[in-house]
Amino acid sequence: MKILFEKMEGLGNDFIILDDRSGNIGTLKGGYPELAKLLCSRHFGVGADGIILILNSSKEDIGFRIFNCDGSEAQMCGNGMRCFAKYIFENKIINKKKITVETAAGRVIPEVITDEAGKVKSVCVDMGEPVLNPDKIPFTMAEAIDAVNLPLDVNGKIFNITAVSMGNPHAVIFVDDVNSTPVELYGREIEKHPNFPEKTNVEFIEIIDRLQMNMRVWERGAGETLACGTGACAAMVAASLNGKCAKKVKIHLKGGTLDIEWRESDNHLYKTGPANSVFKGVIEI
Questions:
Q1: pLDDT digits (tens, 9 = 90+) for 21-32
Q2: Does residue 174 sit in the same domain as residue 194?
Q3: Interval 114-163: pLDDT, tens
Q4: Do 254 and 278 share a domain, yes or no?
Q5: Active site residues
Q6: Residue 258 and residue 227 share a domain
Q7: Residue 31: in which H helix or E strand, if any?
Q8: What is the distance between the alpha carbons of residues 97 and 86, in angstroms, rounded to a whole number?
């Protein structure tokens, strides 16, 4: 089978976009998980952090699924959603700037922001409300009524973490210098910590001031990536809950900067940032 794809990136977090509204791609041997491992290989495939499927939806305007490069499925991805929205708009799949998207994390509402030529220059995504209930993150900590600034023992080293779900679990840790933090060493261990029964993404945050912070991220199922949209939202929530930032901040990641706002009017997180096409192609499976 020949498969059309477009490789896209949001702040260096890269994805292979596949239109499977026909359902044909999902019938391949091994399904989406095996396809993700094959296509995302940077030596034997196209190379990406994950694949994103465009699907039909009976609930929303369109459906979205994402599989990491190791074949595991994620509930949502903020950078991926921006790429998804740009693709939908510029390929005229849906002819409106704001759409509703069905994801495994529930409804997500992206809105494309265009230039004078009608090209998408950025995307603002309504990421919904943060989840702070430990049972729903999920994060298991005896007698904890929330997961703010709790000690987590990782092979004898104690980390103070704040756990947040943005449709997927996050463990946020504040550090003095994010560049000197051994993200791979700690991220790998915290990702699979038994207190996170579904594993977790891990964000390492250096506060610059109340309006800015630096971030590095270890993504569940993908390792360290250049950016993570849901992780940036979780980081902003964690910093706010710990009294470290305002309700609107810039988060600087290896791949670039995201604007994150936590609005009091609806308790939703709004994330604005770029999405870019890298190339289009055809691969035979």
A1: 999 999 999 999
A2: yes
A3: 998 889 999 999 999 999 999 999 999 867 788 999 999 999 999 999 99
A4: no
A5: 77, 228
A6: yes
A7: helix 31-40
A8: 9
> In 10 A of CB 190, how many CB atoms?
22
Pull the structure tokens for residue 168. Answer: 């997927």
256 in the same domain as 141: yes
Find the CATH number of the domain harbouring 111. 3.10.310.10
Q: Are 54 and 20 in contact (CB under 8 A)?
A: yes
Spatial contact of 282 and 245, defined as CB atoms under 8 Å apart: no
Judge whether 255 and 276 are in contact, CB under 8 Å: no
Q: pTM of the entire structure? A: 0.88
Neighbours of 225 (CB within 10 A): 25
Smallest CA-to-CA distance from 121 within 82, 64, 80 is with 82
Residues 117, 156 within the same domain: no
Per the structure, the complete domain to which residue 181 belongs is given by 134-265
Same domain assignment for residues 34 and 59: yes
User: Cα–Cα distance between 122 and 272 in angstroms, integer?
Assistant: 7
Tell me the C-alpha to C-alpha distance, in Å, between residue 258 and each of 58, 147, 210: 31, 25, 15
- In this structure, what are the phi and psi dihedrals at residue 232, rounded to the nearest 5 degrees? -65, -40
DSSP string covering 177-244 = -GGGS-HHHHHHHHHT-TTSTT--EEEEEEEEETTEEEEEEEETTTEEES--HHHHHHHHHHHHHTT-
